[in-house]
Amino acid sequence: MVEGIKFVRRISSRLKQHNLLAEESAPGPDFQSDDELRQFVRDNAWGHHASCTCPIGPRDQGGVLTSDFKVHGTRGLRVVDASVFPRIPGYFIVSAIYMISEKAADVILADVRV
Which of 83, 85, 6, 86 is nearest to 40 (CA)? Predict the structure, then answer.
């Protein structure tokens, strides 16, 4: 993402010099170094998919699901979608969703076989 921001800045600089392009609104001129841009991306870029609303993890740490995709404190209910991630797994999360779905299928099938 940082390289993408820098690339767009490079290719748009001549347009700005000729007043053919408005000022950058985000991240804006206050973010120049790679470290500043990385922090901006961490704080603001999340992709366009909702996720992380029912994260896997211990209940006392904000987790909603157990490691086998069961909702804490319930029976017969599992969640397998983008909401299971404790934090966003990257900008394009579809690969991570496929992977977690495969893992969930293995876990659920193993439970049925027991």
Answer: 6
pLDDT tens profile 17-68? 888 888 888 899 999 999 999 999 888 876 556 788 999 999 999 999 999 9
48 tagged catalytic: no
What pLDDT was estimated at residue 46?
63
**Secondary structure of the chain as H, E, C letters:** CHHHHHHHHHHHHHHHHCCCCCCCCCCCCCCCCHHHHHHHHHHHCCCCCCCCCCCECCHHHCCCECCCCEECCCCCCECCCHHHCCCCCCCCCHHHHHHHHHHHHHHHHHHHHC
Catalytic residue among 18, 48, 49, 72: 49
The pTM for the full model equals 0.57
Number of C-beta neighbours around residue 9 at 10 A: 14
Specify whether the CB–CB gap between 23 and 29 falls below 8 A.
Answer: yes
